[in-house]
Write a structure and sequence with these properties.
Helix content is 48%, strand content 4%. By secondary structure, it is mainly alpha-helical.
Length: 228
């Protein structure tokens, strides 16, 4: 593929290079060969590489290429703004349980921002530094909407026990805390901390008016509004 691109001037994109650890030395040799034989390469040829941070990624490639990085926004407010820019109003309003969707998604984005901000404090935040990212949030909000939708459909069942809470809290906590985010966590105490934080936001109390997200009462869940 790369050789064909060098001949005809195509643009080549290799995604998730960090997953091909054993191929990194070969990639390094390819890049070095390209640098030494520029005159034989089509002038329109471009090679793009994407990768998570990895210690085994060749330093020479980083030094000889143009680098673009994406980092989480700094601060709770900026982090949450970015989380809301990634969705539309319809994404929240299409859920049958509209109120729960709005409030629980607000709690989820606040949770996402909090665990990102904890990295600032080194070992006081997490025993091990974890690279939580937007894919964790994206998966969790999809799971949130799916579970709320399924719960609303089951609630229409006439044989359903009406005394039981229709929102599957245990499933939300398990999938979001143990799988989506917890899948990155390798330290037992960090996992316990992450789940404890999540339980503050995935709780039936968040559906009550003006539920406070911190003891300082600075942050609270607003009423249903618009994404903008």
């Amino acid at each position: 593929m790369i050789e064909n691109g060098k001949r005809d001037g195509s643009w080549i994109l290799l995604q998730n290079c960090h997953l091909a650890k054993t191929w990194m030395p070969d990639l390094e040799r390819i890049i070095e060969d390209n640098a030494e034989n520029e005159e034989s390469i089509h002038e329109d040829f471009r090679l793009f590489l994407t990768s998570m941070p990895a210690t085994y990624f060749p330093v020479s490639i980083l030094q000889n290429g143009i680098k673009l990085t994406t980092e989480p926004p700094r601060g709770l407010k900026n982090n949450m703004k970015r989380s809301y820019r990634d969705i539309t109003q319809d994404f929240l309003d299409d859920c049958p349980n509209k109120e729960a969707m709005h409030k629980l998604y607000f709690g989820l984005t606040f949770f996402h921002a909090v665990i990102q901000e904890r990295k600032k404090f080194g070992p006081l935040g997490w025993n091990i530094r974890y690279e939580f990212n937007e894919s964790d949030l994206e998966t969790s909000r999809t799971v949130l909407k799916n579970l709320l939708t399924e719960a609303s459909e089951r609630e229409r069942d006439p044989e359903l026990d009406r005394d039981k809470d229709p929102i599957p809290w245990e499933a939300l906590l398990f999938v979001t805390g143990d799988i989506n985010y917890g899948g990155r966590v390798t330290d037992d105490w960090d996992r316990r901390c992450l789940l404890s934080i999540l339980k503050k936001y995935y709780t039936s109390e968040i559906l009550e008016p003006k539920y406070y997200l911190s003891e300082s009462e600075t942050y609270y869940v607003p009423d249903i509004g618009t994404v903008d």
